[in-house]
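Technical note accompanying the year-one report. For the benefit of new consortium partners, we illustrate the data format agreed upon in the data management plan: each record pairs a sequence with a C-alpha cell string. No post-processing was applied to the example shown here.
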Amino acid sequence: MRTLGGTGIKVSSYCLGAMMFGAWGNTDHEDGIRIIHAALDGGINFIDTADVYSAGESEEIVGKALHGRRDSVVLATKANGPMGDDINMRGNSRRWIVSEVENSLRRLRTDYLDLYQMHRPDPDTDIDETLSALSDLVHSGKVRAIGSSTFPAEQIVEAQWVAERRGYARFRCEQPPYSIFVRGIEAAVLPTCQKYGMGVIAWSPLAGGWLTGRIRQDNGPDMTSPRAQRLPHRFDPSLPGNAAKLAAVEELVKIAADAGMPLTHLATAFVVAHPGVTAAIIGPRTMDQLTDLMAGASVELSDDILDRIDQIVPPGTTLNYPADAGWQAPVLSDPGARRRPLADRAAG
C-alpha cells in the first residue's frame, strides 16, 4: 500500500481501471462484476472509473459490484467528457460539476466519492470556478479528495496557487498517461507533482495494448477493434509514431525474455518503479488479463533493465506525439489561435 499524496488514504500500487467494463469493452455485466471481485480479493483496494466510460455504464457496473463492499474500497471517478448533446453537459464548470457528481453517485450506488477528478483541462472555464465547486463538494462530504487528470505541468501549478490563495481544497493527485512509450510526463509533470506532494495515478501503462506482446511487426495492430476504431491515430501503423512503437516492441520483447517475464509485467513494473508514481491503473477486459497483470504485481526491475529500456525509448520521450499524450492544448491544435486576423496583419 502507498499513500495517495498527502491525503493519508492508503491505496494499492495497482489501481483497477474500469474503462473496459461496458460498451467500450466487456458488455457482460456479471463478468465485469466477477473481475472486480477477483481484483479486490487479490489485494487491490483502489478502483478508478469515469462518467464518460460507455456513457455511464462503467460506473453502473462498478456500483453493482461494490454492493456490500463499498467501505473497504477507495473509489475514484472523473468528469469532463460529453455526456449528451447539450453543450453544457461537459466541461469543468460549476454548473456541470454540481449536476454530474450527483449522476455519478447514483450510478455508483454510493453517497460519497473518495476521489473526484477533472478528466481533462477545460480552457473555457477558469480554474477558480472549478476549484470553488469542488471545494463545496468536499465540504458537503460528497467528495473526500479531488484531483486532475492529464493536466500539463503549468496548469497543475496554477491550480495549486489558486487553491492556496483562495482557500480552496487543492488537487491531491494527478492522473497522467505513462508507459514505456509515453514518457513525456517525466520532464515536468512528475517533478511538479513531487514538488507539491501530489499522488500520481498513471493511466495506460500498457500503452493501449501495445505492450501486451500481441501487437508485433509481423501482424500489427487490429484496426477493426473498438479501441482502434475510436482512436485510429493511436494505432494506424502507417503513422511514423506507431511505426516507431512497432520497432520498439521487438526490442522490449527481448529485454523481457532476458529478464524471464512477460512483456506486460515489464511494462507495469516500469511504471510503478518511478518514485513519483503512486499507482498504475490496470484496465483488464477479461479475467485472464486480470490474472496475468496481478501475477506481475511483485516484479521489480533492476537498474540494468531500466537502463536498457532508456536506450530504446529515452526519458521524457513520447513516441507517438501528440496522439498518445492524452490532451493537446487548443493553442496547438487550432490554427486560429496562432494567427492574427488577416485584417490586423494587413493593417500592420
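Partners are asked to follow this layout when depositing records. The mean pLDDT is 96.
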